[in-house]
Amino acid sequence: MAAATNSILLKLKPKIKIKICNPLFGYPRSNSSASPSIPHLFSTTTLPYADADSDCSSEIKATADANPNFIHPSTDVHPNAIIGHGVSVGPFCTIGSSVKLGNGCRLYPGSHVFGNTEIGDHCLLMPGAVVGDHLPGRTVLGCNNVIGHHAVIGVKCQDLKYKPGDECFLHIGDNNEIREHTSIHRSSKSSDKTVIGDNNLIMGSCHIAHDCNIGNNNIFANNTLLAGHVVVEDYTHTAGAIVVHQFCHIGSFSFVGGGSVVSQDVPKYTMVVGERAELRGLNLEGLRRNGFTATEEEDKELGKITAVCTMIQSLRDSFAQNRRGICKFRYFSGS
């Protein structure tokens, strides 16, 4: 298959004789000397799919200084797109007219960036990933993000109240890993935006709907599904196949057990589980992993501990107007 694809690409440029050093297809292959007019056909060793032991490595290094970017000839790049330094783009990708790619970004084969989209430095788009959409508004990704295979980021929301033509927004921070088949939608109205912070791990097949606000250092296991307007604070952990009702709040350092349906707020530092999620006590293991000490857990003067004060405030906030209250409590026996 790889050999056939290479043959097709050569037929597209019959008047140009080149030396193909193309780890994109898994192996180097030689024809004749390269034409100096098409240095973009050479990759650099910074490519994610580069072969460091290739017999073309010296030639790659020789051309890297003159033209550090690699844009595969089959890629559709709009002339108005802004592409940073050291960017590598594999075959059959699309880069739209209002796209801005930061330095060192890597687009694997078949990934696409559309609409008014800005991607920060050193982001990685795996094969089939789609970022942005042809909509009013904007999609912004920070630096060092990984967008997994066939993930769809920054497209139109599924809220039927969305009015075509309204601006909609998605802002994603730095150092997030968004795994395969995950979908993250833009906001449902111009006055709001979907936000994801920094250092989050969002595993495969998760869904984050319109107008959600996700903090930092969270872990969402596979098939975590968040409805619209959900707020997730920091250092939360969800197990697999959980559903969160729209407008719910999930407090910092909390844990949601596998298969749970969360229809009310989850207070800070707590653990919930169940088909209708119920409180099962403190998230002790999560607290210990994040540096909370046994002294803080057992101190009798609880009112002086910042963590306890913020937990109490979180409980009070959950009963404010337009909030859904907290999950009911059930004693957890451990069985």
From TrEMBL:
InterPro entries on file: Acetyltransf_C, Acetyltransf_C_sf, Hexapep, Lipid_A_LpxA, Trimer_LpxA-like_sf
UniProt superkingdom: Eukaryota
Keyword Cell cycle among record annotations: no
Coiled coil: none
Entry's Gene Ontology molecular function annotations: acyl-[acyl-carrier-protein]-UDP-N-acetylglucosamine O-acyltransferase activity
Pfam families: Acetyltransf_11, Hexapep
GO biological process: one example: lipid A biosynthetic process
Domain UDP N-acetylglucosamine O-acyltransferase C-terminal intervals: 265-296
Keyword set, alphabetical order: Acyltransferase, Lipid A biosynthesis, Lipid biosynthesis, Lipid metabolism, Transferase
SUPFAM superfamilies per UniProt: Trimeric LpxA-like enzymes
Protein name stated in the entry: UDP N-acetylglucosamine O-acyltransferase C-terminal domain-containing protein
